[in-house]
Design a protein that fits this description.
about 290 residues, mainly beta, Neuraminidase, 1 helix, 25 strands, globular, SMP-30, metal-binding
């Protein structure tokens, strides 16, 4: 198994760092502190912009031809630009104030797939929605606890419900925007934590942030084999994304949420951001299309 060492990208510590994202048009790294209600952007020179959203913000995806992002907020999806801030709402996913958006991404056809989860109980009461253009959202997977890590490769979609400790593979219909034929692609052993955010490389291998697992792990979704480990000096690793001009850099977020005083003493960099240069390339981001 290959072993990589990540370096510190930012020592600022977030309660629930998440949503790592590379925005190609603006050449900036983006991430959020979900519980801090804040979105961050930083360019390669280290210049950082901070945007206080005012509510839970968990995921961002680019909108084709607009210079804008879609943000997943408490129970709705809203347009955003650094110049104008929050803009027009795209859709409401769940009007229950006890729910919020979690992870999401766009499929190759430009549909938004985004999950919801309960703020407290997180037991089969969330869902994975699909939003096509300006049509109403459709639930594609129900009874989800903690939706995370949605990526596509050809006619396959990979998705994890963190609570299951599994990564599921689905047959993906690009014309209809539906999924079928679920198959367990990866089972994460308990000693490696639980699968959280996920990205995919040009070889079709999955890079998975392991909550409670002190790292990002590279998995083969065909064989279920563990191929590589990026060691992170933080316990709760929450998201990872390829980016940079050659798509070989990776930004990794971590969290301090729910950690004990003893754990924080053992992992004092928890909540910080990390970076690693890899000998693998990520895939370009998919854009939301009307």
């Amino acid at each position: 198994m290959e072993i990589f060492q990540a370096s510190l990208f930012s020592a600022e510590q977030y309660e629930l760092g998440e949503g790592a994202f590379w925005w190609p048009e603006r050449a900036v790294w983006c991430w959020v502190d979900i519980l801090g209600h804040t979105l961050y952007m930083q360019d390669p020179a280290g210049r950082r912009s901070t945007f206080h959203i005012g509510e839970y913000v968990s995921v961002m995806v680019p909108v084709a031809g607009s210079g804008e992002l879609l943000l997943g907020l408490q129970g709705r999806v809203v347009r955003f630009s650094p110049e104008q801030g929050l803009g027009r709402m795209l859709t409401v996913l769940d009007g229950n104030p006890g729910m919020r958006c979690n992870d999401g991404g766009c499929d190759p056809a430009g549909r938004l797939w985004i999950g919801t989860m309960h703020l407290i109980t997180q037991h089969d009461n969330g869902a994975l929605y699909c939003v096509e253009g300006n049509r109403p959202p459709v639930i594609r997977l129900a009874q989800v606890s903690i939706p995370n890590g949605i990526v596509w490769k050809g006619d396959l979609m990979y998705f994890t419900d963190t609570a299951t400790n599994m990564i599921q593979e689905y047959r993906y219909d690009v014309e209809k925007g539906t999924v079928s034929q679920p198959r367990r692609a990866v089972t994460v052993p308990a000693e490696l934590g639980s699968p959280d955010g996920m990205t995919i490389d040009s070889e079709g291998m999955l890079w998975v942030a392991h909550w409670g697992g002190r790292g990002v792990y590279r998995w083969n979704p065909v064989s279920g084999e563990l191929l590589a480990h990026i060691e992170i000096p933080a316990l709760q690793v929450s998201s990872c994304i390829f980016g940079g001009p050659d798509m070989q850099d990776m930004l990794i977020t971590t969290a301090r949420e729910h950690m004990t005083a003893e754990q924080l003493q053992q992992y004092p960099l928890s909540g910080s951001l990390f970076h690693v240069k890899l000998p693998y390339k990520g895939l370009p981001v998919n854009y939301f299309k009307y």
